[in-house]
């Protein structure tokens, strides 16, 4: 028997109560096996509620208009500022190019890219090959971008390698830490002596902390000083990656702020 | 210099959906919402969303006969915004990590019996409206007229369509277009069973 074809207007008619009894049975049977259909019915029902609320739509429209008015006022000023910047750049650039000595590197000369610094939160420093950089400047990064997962790391979070040197027993591959809290790492060594290294990286893959542990089978990492955001940890044993995980630091403020 | 509007004027204006009241609210209260949201890991778009949601919630409360303000309107509005932002962060966190979190509960978390609406329905309203603005003009116009309860025959006349049957078919088409836009919007994936 040929299966009844459900057309898209069935969704509207179902939510409007316009399907016949036999059509309704067919449609509800189909919904049981199709999450996509169920989702679309859910969206359509919400759409109907919105379309039946002309007052709410009116308010939404007026909020949109108010937002547009504010944006237009802001954009006029932005255009003036942009024009002024372009003029200044043209004057500055022209003056510089005219006065530049041959053979001297200009301000737009390519610079070599320094390797990523290794930072130690406890000492509030980042150390790279050229010297010590104060970590404070890093904290000005917009917090929203601090939560974006790093695609290169995500597939291996929670993946324990086949190393026979060490087994990580805690923390869980995905953990949550209150701001200022500590993350405790525990492991079982299969071989001694073993040099265990713990690395903490931010969601841009920059190492923010690293420590070598020659003795013991645990380490408590204090997160104080780390801005809210998503971080990854790596446990290495004799330079082999044993396991990788991630944790989130989030501060939830109270009503009093 | 702009005239300062009293709270009662604001409430009455909002109840009647006056543009001047909504403009005033946006001008005076949006910076407060934006400040709070940005201070707590949000960005400009988040602030816009939370402001809109807060106004939707406040509007739905103001319409009720039982509505009675026990604090200033500003305090009330900002507390709605703060609660909504907390809900949003909470929801996004759970969605990202699908885990019960071990962070300490804040001392004054939002209360279930607060006047704050269901988070999901607010998100859905915002998604639907955002995508409605992206529809072709004739679809937007048709849905607006349908929303205003204009009869199909009248819509056919206004939009120079063949007849009311065609209007109904177009309505199905426009709703389907909007549904598909919403379902392909990345923000809607939290509602999908896919």
Give the key terms.
heterodimer; A: 257 residues; alpha+beta; 5-stranded mixed beta sheet; 3-stranded antiparallel beta sheet; 4 helices; B: 194 residues; mainly alpha; 8 helices
Characterise the protein shown here.
The complex is a heterodimer of chains A (257) and B (194). The termini of chain A are far apart. Chain A is built from four helices and eleven strands; from the N terminus they run ααααβββββββββββ. Chain A is an alpha+beta fold. Chain A has helices at 9-15, 21-33, 35-51, 54-99, and strands at residues 118-120, 125-128, 131-134, 166-170, 174-178, 182-189, 196-202, 207-213, 218-222, 229-237, 240-250. Chain B contains eight helices and no strands. Chain B has helices spanning 7-15, 19-39, 44-62, 73-97, 119-132, 137-147, 152-158, 164-184. In chain B, 65% of the residues lie in helices and 0% in strands. The longest helix of chain B has 25 residues, at 73-97. Chain B starts with 6 loop residues before the first helix and ends in a 10-residue tail after the last helix. Chain B is an all-alpha fold and 194 residues long. The chains are: A alpha+beta (257), B mainly alpha (194). At the A-B interface, helix 1, helix 3, helix 4 and strand 5 of A face helix 2, helix 3, helix 4, helix 5 and helix 6 of B.
């Amino acid at each position: 028997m040929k299966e009844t074809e459900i057309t898209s207007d069935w969704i509207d008619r179902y939510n409007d109560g316009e399907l016949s009894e036999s059509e309704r049975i067919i449609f509800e049977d189909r919904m049981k096996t199709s999450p996509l259909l169920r989702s679309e019915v859910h969206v359509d029902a919400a759409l109907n509620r919105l379309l039946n609320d002309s007052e709410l739509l009116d308010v939404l429209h007026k909020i949109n208009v108010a937002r547009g008015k504010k944006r237009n006022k802001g954009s006029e000023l932005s255009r003036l500022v942009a024009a002024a910047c372009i003029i200044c750049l043209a004057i500055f650039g022209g003056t510089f190019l005219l006065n530049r000595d041959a053979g001297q590197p200009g301000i737009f000369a390519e610079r070599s890219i320094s390797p990523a610094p290794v930072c130690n939160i406890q000492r509030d420093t980042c150390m790279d090959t050229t010297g010590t950089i104060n970590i404070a400047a890093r904290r000005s990064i917009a917090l929203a971008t601090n939560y974006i997962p790093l695609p290169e790391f995500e597939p291996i979070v929670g993946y324990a390698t086949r190393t026979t040197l060490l087994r990580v027993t805690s923390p869980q591959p995905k953990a949550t830490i209150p701001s200022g809290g500590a993350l405790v790492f525990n492991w079982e060594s299969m071989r001694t002596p073993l040099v265990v290294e713990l690395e903490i990286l931010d969601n841009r893959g920059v190492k923010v902390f690293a420590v070598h542990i020659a003795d013991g089978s645990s380490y408590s990492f204090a997160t104080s000083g780390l801005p809210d955001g998503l971080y990854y940890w790596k446990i290495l044993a004799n330079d082999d990656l044993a396991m990788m995980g991630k944790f989130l630091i989030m501060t939830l403020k109270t009503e009093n702020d | 210099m702009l005239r300062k509007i009293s709270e009662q004027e604001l409430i009455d204006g909002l109840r009647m959906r006056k543009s001047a009241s909504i403009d005033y609210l946006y001008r005076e209260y949006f910076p407060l919402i934006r400040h709070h949201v940005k201070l707590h890991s949000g960005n400009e778009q988040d602030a816009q969303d939370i402001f809109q949601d807060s106004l939707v919630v406040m509007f739905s409360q103001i319409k009720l006969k039982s509505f009675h303000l026990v604090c200033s309107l500003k305090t009330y509005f900002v507390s709605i915004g703060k609660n909504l932002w907390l809900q949003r962060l909470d929801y996004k966190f759970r969605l990202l990590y699908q885990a019960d979190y071990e962070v300490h509960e804040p001392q004054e978390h939002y209360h279930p019996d607060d006047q704050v609406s269901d988070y999901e329905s607010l998100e859905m309203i915002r998604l639907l409206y955002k995508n409605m603005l992206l529809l072709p003009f004739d679809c937007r116009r048709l849905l607006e007229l349908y929303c205003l309860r204009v009869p199909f025959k009248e819509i056919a006349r206004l939009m120079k369509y063949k007849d009311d049957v065609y209007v109904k078919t177009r309505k199905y088409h426009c709703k389907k277009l909007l549904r598909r836009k919403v379902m392909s919007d990345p923000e809607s994936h939290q509602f999908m069973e896919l």
